Amino acid sequence: MNMMSEIRGAGLVERARQVAAIAAKHADAVDKEGRFPHEAVAAMKEARLFGIQIPILLGGEGATIAEIAEICSIIAQECASSAMIFAMHHIKLSSCVSHGTGDEWHEAFMHRIVREQLLLGSATTEAGIGGNLRNSICAIEVDGDICRLTKEASVISYGKYADAILITSRSHKDAASTDQVMTVFLKDQYTLEQTHVWDTLGMRGTCSDGFLFKAEAPSVQILPKPFAEIAAESMLATCHLLWSGVWYGIALNAVTRAQAFVRAAARANPGVTPPGALRLAEATAELHLIKSNTIAGIERFEAAKEDPAQLSSMGFAVAMNNVKIATSQKILSVINQAMMICGIAGYKNGTPYSLGRHLRDAHSAQLMISNDRILSNTATMLTVHKLDTSLMA
Amino acid sequence: MKDKIRELLGKLGGLPVAVDTLADGADLYAAGLSSFASVQLMLGIEDAFDIEFPDHLLNRKSFASIDAIAETVTAILDGQEAA
């Protein structure tokens, strides 16, 4: 099946390319200054890309995960931070679409996202819990029609710049740490007191500072399903797949730069195969693995989407975990290959072949939900889950 | 069967509450059953009832309550007899 044939018309891709062109102009400054990519995010809003995942009936365009992953990859080829912000927004939005449809407040909220092109942020990490997002210390307090939450959120994706934040907590003060809910809080319903600065190796433009988050809102803004279901049925899969789209875009651009380097060398010395050519061939083979792996994961998700039993099955969770592990590891070796091809021109900043930003951005992939955590989760499941014995199923 | 399941749940479930306080239909995930503990419980049940969970039954729903686990185990045992 050709995934591109499923990308409806040229509309979304064309809009994504316009955003990517703007992101490209500012990518180095965003990285160097560790600043929010205001220009690219404004372009996403201008291109009305923040509401595309929302069903047509709720005012959106009903874009599929394949279409959104394609956009992630297009933007990531120019600016990984911008693409990651776009991906994170759509990961949060997938929870609203999958688990808020049918609920009055959340449906009205989705209409509003389309109308106002609201950017959704994420606060699943908590001081004392780290990246184990299926546990919370903080608890939401429901007092009649009102709910209140205070969370020591050590990372909130682009916290200062989000228009709304989807945040996890225990479902009530006596709840077990795994009995969680997710709540939507709008910008005017919370305060953020900065506690951590996002001064990182890569993905610097996501500005995922840490905050003490305090909020109060109508309790109807709590998503009506347990977070355990949201995580299993929409969030983890969309995370791994959209992130893989971003990572593929980073790796693809690194290889594109390496190819340009080899082509320049070939033109300079006609009749002689440049020394990097063989390595380039090898890098494209690895790149192809990342692509195939991501596409296979997306197809699996699309096939399972209508069936909650499949989405919450171990086989599906193992498959999504494996997509994440493989793509996050593989991009590093591909970018390293590209660096070997471009040599000092790749190592230096400010050349057409510079790869420092790619390499630094790519290093976040193994850490965003740590690969060690994911592997140990898969290892646990493999004590009961049996491997699929067919190639094509 | 439910007594055996309760016994295993008490031993392997790592729940912050006593198993006696849970009704047969109570949501085990809300009671604090973690994904790691749920797998330990699955292994314990496979061993105790001499069964193997087929992949299509390895999902959250099959282990959501003591009732659900009993239904799942019964379905597998019935299937084995029929086979």
Structure commentary:
The complex is a heterodimer of chains A (393) and B (83). Chain A has 393 residues and is of the alpha+beta class. Chain A contains 13 helices and 7 strands. In chain A, helix 2 packs antiparallel against helix 3 (38-46) and helix 10 (314-342) runs antiparallel to helix 13 (371-381). With 83 residues, chain B is mainly alpha-helical. Chain B has a single domain, classed as ACP-like (Non-ribosomal Peptide Synthetase Peptidyl Carrier Protein, Chain A, Orthogonal Bundle), CATH 1.10.1200.10. Chain B has helices at residues 2-12, 35-49, 66-82. Chains A and B meet through helix 7, helix 9 and helix 13 of A and helix 2 of B.
The oligomeric state of the chains shown is heterodimer
Here the CATH topology of the largest domain in chain A equals Butyryl-CoA Dehydrogenase, subunit A, domain 3
| Chain pair sharing the greatest interface | A-B, 26 and 21 residues
Query: What sort of overall outline of chain B do the alpha carbons produce when their principal axes are compared?
Result: globular
User: Which regions of chain A contain 5 or more consecutive residues with pLDDT less than 50?
Assistant: 1-9
Largest beta sheet: strand ordering of chain A: 2-3-7-6
Can you tell me the CATH architecture of chain B? Answer: Orthogonal Bundle
Name of the CATH first level of the largest domain in chain A: Mainly Alpha
Mean pLDDT of chain B: 89
**Strand/helix succession of chain A:** HHHHHHEEEEEEEHHHHHHH
Note the main attributes of this structure.
heterodimer, A: 393 residues, alpha+beta, Butyryl-Coa Dehydrogenase, subunit A, domain 1, Butyryl-CoA Dehydrogenase, subunit A, domain 2, Butyryl-CoA Dehydrogenase, subunit A, domain 3, 3 domains, 4-stranded antiparallel β-sheet, 3-stranded mixed β-sheet, 53% helix, globular, disordered N terminus, B: 83 residues, mainly alpha, Non-ribosomal Peptide Synthetase Peptidyl Carrier Protein, Chain A, 3 helices, 52% helix
